[in-house]
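User: Okay, second chain of the day. Same drill as before: sequence in, structure tokens out.
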Amino acid sequence: MMAAKKTTQALLERLPEVRGSLEADAPLDRFTWFRVGGAADVLFRPADSDDLAAFLKAKPADVPLTMIGLGSNLLVRDGGVPGVVVRLGRGLGAVKADGITVVAGAGATDRSVAAAARDAGIAGLEFLTGVPGMIGGALRMNAGAYGSEMRDIVTAAKALSPDGELHDLTPKELGFSYRHSGVPEDWIFIEATLQGEAGNIQTITQRMQEIMTAREESQPLRTPTGGSTFANPEGHKAWELIDKAGCRGLMRGGAQVSEKHCNFLINTGTATAADLEGLGEEIRRRVHQETGVTLEWEIRRIGVSATGLEPVAGDWEADDA
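Assistant: Same drill. Structure tokens below.
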């Protein structure tokens, strides 16, 4: 423990000064919906985009950097995350509506953007009410729900490359596809320009309420969980494949496949990140064995296991490659 503290202190001394905050040995379970996981060596919460850009320009190149958002589709492994973890907050959370356009910082929650659009009478962004995350994460994975996705509404975005340089991105440069953006993984989104259409506030409000009700009825939102665990394979629904493989209610340690929606994993109260990830891999194995379909994780997994190593997939995948 003492050696770990010395290592973290040495890392802090190598990092540039910031206007935001730097926190050593920062527990990350408080930032994830699963409520599990280890600590970041250092957690950086920038004051604004300029603070973040300056940090990126001055950060030693050998220091790993990991970006997190609201933590709704994030699993932090039990051994924590080496290097610096960046979490955007209020400094990048501004939302402005003008005409039929909304400009939102990457740290704004999807729900707050939907609400701002509603208040301005802008239709077409209601689906963001059903996306549990921040705009930065929504850009990264082309988030979608209830028949719409980010590529339907994004007209421009801004991102910082690892050297802190600002890039203005067009929809074509964003390279959206199903649950994916073509922007390099080590770029950090800082802003999105979204476009809807003129609408009736009452009608927009009603649609948002319908989405919230549908989520409440179909998803285990009152239990520590993440978003959808696996992406829908082409031509299939992940939950149907999981159900067909007999995984509904399946448990591993304190982790369980939700009885309410079997593409959700839940922490029953005692789960570790290893329990949740191991359960997910068992689901993948059973679904592949039953149907021949390989499920791909939609939950983002970061960090190292309690042993200090990143887990690897089982041999069943290699056999079929």
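The longest strand covers residues 188-195.

User: Thanks, on to the next one.
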